[in-house]
Write a structure and sequence with these properties.
The complex is a heterodimer of chains A (about 375) and B (about 300).
Chain A (H helix, E strand, L loop, with lengths): L5 H5 L9 H18 L1 H26 L8 E4 L13 E4 L3 H9 L5 E5 L7 E5 L5 H7 L15 H36 L1 H6 L4 H33 L3 H33 L8 H4 L1 H16 L4 H7 L6 H11 L6 H27 L9 H5 L4
Parallel strand pairs in A: 1-2, 1-3
Antiparallel strand pairs in A: 3-4
Helix pairs in contact in A: 2-8, 3-8, 6-8, 6-9, 6-11, 6-13, 8-9, 9-13, 9-14, 12-13
Chain B lengths: L1 E10 L2 E11 L4 E5 L6 H9 L6 E6 L2 E2 L2 H4 L2 E4 L11 H11 L4 H14 L15 H13 L5 E5 L7 H16 L4 E4 L3 H7 L2 E6 L2 E7 H8 L3 E7 L14 E7 L2 E6 L2 H13 L6 E7 L4 H9 L1
Parallel strand pairs in B: 3-8, 3-9, 6-7, 7-8
Antiparallel strand pairs in B: 1-2, 1-4, 4-5, 9-10, 11-13, 11-14, 12-13
The chains are: A mainly alpha (about 375), B alpha/beta (about 300).
Chain lengths: ~375, ~300
Amino acid sequence: MTTQLQHTQTGQTHSRQLGAAQAAWLVAEREITTKLRSKAFLISTGVLLLLVLGTVLFGGISSKMGGFGGETKVAVVAETADHVNSEAFEVVKVADRAAAEQAVLSEQVDAAVVPGGDTPVGLTVLAADSPPMSLVQALSASPQVELLKPTTENPMLAYFIAIAFGIVFMMSAITFGTTIAQSVVEEKQTRIVEILLATVSARTILAGKILGNSILALGQVIAIAALTSVGMLATGQDLLLGELGTALIWFAILFAFGFVLLASLYAALASLVSRQEDVASAVSPVMWLVMIPYIAIIMFNTNVKVLAIMSYVPFSAPVGMPMRLYLGTAEWWEPVVSLGILVVAIAIVWWLGARIYERSILRTGAKVKLKDALAAKE
Amino acid sequence: MIELNGITRSFGDRQVLDDVTFSVAGGRMTGFVGGNGAGKTTTMRIILGVLAQGSGTVTLDGQPITAGDRSRFGYMPEERGLYPKMKVAEQLVYLGKLHGLSAAAAKSEVDGLLERLGLAEREGDTLESLSLGNQQRAQIAAALVHRPIALVLDEPFSGLDPMAVDVVLSVLRDYAAQGVPVLFSSHQLDIVERLCDDVTVIGGGRILASGSRESLRAQHSGREFEIELTGAAADAGWVRDQAGISLTHLDGGYARFEAENDAAAQAVLARAVTGSADGTQVLRFGKLTPSLAQIFKEVVK
């Protein structure tokens, strides 16, 4: 062996104990670079972002076109021309009823309006097999409606926005929660954690893992929010974006903190098992915590009481509070209070999670019982 | 120098370490031997602070060992582990940085180590794509990447071919030569015998023997001697009739025997030298020193 080790030439050591923050950042950095290099992750993120952009663009374009298939074509004769609003329908003038019937049957128009009929309106709508409801409604005599508590929200739109918040929350939480769980078990299974523990503390490793995956998760959510905003602006939905703006910002903030909470749980539960095959069953309790807000927001997106509760429960706040902000049922200070509750919850869960992680990470073999991991004695 | 003093440790009701006391001197290689479940790994984990001891102290150069000291130790755990899907050089650099090296220092350290361990051309491969022997070399590199101030290696030679053993040996000797305390465990007693300066034997959670290789040999050498005669009619059969001697093995001119005392043994030699009228000569005579394997078997019993 002719090559000498470098340190025999310089004769000194450079190693030293890193500060906890520095070490945690190194761990976080590894989590992030490993994930960003994973082809599967990049592809699935790309597909997700494309889907989001596609949905927003589709929504924008179809709302401009006034629904599917464009405007309804209506044939009118001289007597009925004044009754059909030419802004709402594409009006085609024909000579008489025979010509109108011809136009409907030849599918040149969707319907025709001719004089006559037994109703007080004194008009008859001709259609091939089913009359366009919008036309019938426009020509019907309706009572006057006076809204005492008007809302600008379209209930369908609110429903879709609820689903969107729910899906983004659930997908990002599960994607990165699973990542952190697998990463914990990988280190436990390969025992590299023993080498890591010899130089940094278990809490530091755990903090680094949570930090790294939270940054990734938040990055993804911000990318989705940004893409949604850009897509809305590009398709002229600025009004909707204006209404959604605050909700989107709070969604990102509450998601960031909510994810830290979930990630602590994912990591702690994963540290109980020693094999990748057991990860799924170990983290299933926290999986429910992720799914329940999603299901609840779809079922109760118009129920003010349930939404109010959801917006304060730490696990569902990232979905519930933005929804209320969008609907305008939350005061400005409510998300701040909700964030405060979330932070307290993080402190408690972090304390418990770190305790479980510390006590389980070296116990390989059979699944460590939660009770044993939490027990006072090591 | 690392010193362990009165270390105990239990897992539940099972006591795995009982008053473990020994030291690992700087500049010397200390072999740590013991059967399966004797407590080697637990002891090493306690030195590294990966496990906490029930009672007792670990000191480095007379001072209680700190987390800061430990972060500068080099450790190779019994269960091998590195990131399977990470590139070899990359994860070594990561470990170096975790030990406080700058990125540049870690990189140059890793390059030097991989070169020396014969892994330089595999540095860009993922760990899982390496052969077991090469994974083992990477594991050793992981323990050395930050220029440790002490080395604790659990079975560093298992899974290595003889050439790799020599490479690793020479690297470890270099560390010891710089005054670094090196503690390693091994089941391969012949390697321990060849390599170590000091030996500590553990069994059932207790230290059964500890000291320099020579002093252990001297302590455990019994009263057994051997003599070999050469010549046309060499026959050592007469040894059995000597006073205070009991013959244990006889093969023509060769005899192994136990002597009640040194005088009785000397009498055998004197007779062999003087009583050889037929031209028989003494080829060798001496006290038998036990091999480490023999000492091990004896103390573990």
